[in-house]
């Protein structure tokens, strides 16, 4: 793995911390440094895989995360007030349950379809 300014900084910080804290904290400092390096390696592998698929590295996950968040907010934003509104209509219990079930099956269907389409793409 080529050295980067951030990995050099992390190594220097770990060595400096070891000097200040003493050898009894060496294991914890080494584990922390290795964890950061593992994360850096994972990021680079993800970026290379994204490039191999023709995607811009680091762009797609945040886009998908934003879409998932938006769909979650919209689903709950429509589902919960819709449930409350339908509940206060004064309809018979059987009609009320049918409408609520239909509404929530639709919301769940949209979410499942989105997840399945995302899985096929990714």
Structure report:
This protein is mostly helical. Helices cover 83% and strands 0% of the residues. It is built from four helices and no strands. The chain has helices at 5-21, 26-52, 60-87, 93-121. The longest helix is centred in the last third of the chain and has 29 residues, at 93-121.
Major beta sheet summary = none
Separation, N- and C-terminal Cα atoms: 27 Å
Q: What's the alpha carbon Rg, rounded to whole Å?
A: 25 Å
Q: What class would the helix/strand composition place it in? A: mainly alpha
- Beta strand %: under 5%
Average of pLDDT = 80
- Poorly predicted runs: none
Topology, element by element:
Layout: H1 5-21, H2 26-52, H3 60-87, H4 93-121
Helix pairs in contact: 1-2, 3-4
Summarize the structure in short.
With 122 residues, this protein is an all-alpha fold. It is built from 4 helices and no strands. The protein has helices spanning 5-21, 26-52, 60-87, 93-121.
Question: Key terms for this structure?
Answer:
122 residues; mainly alpha; 4 helices; elongated
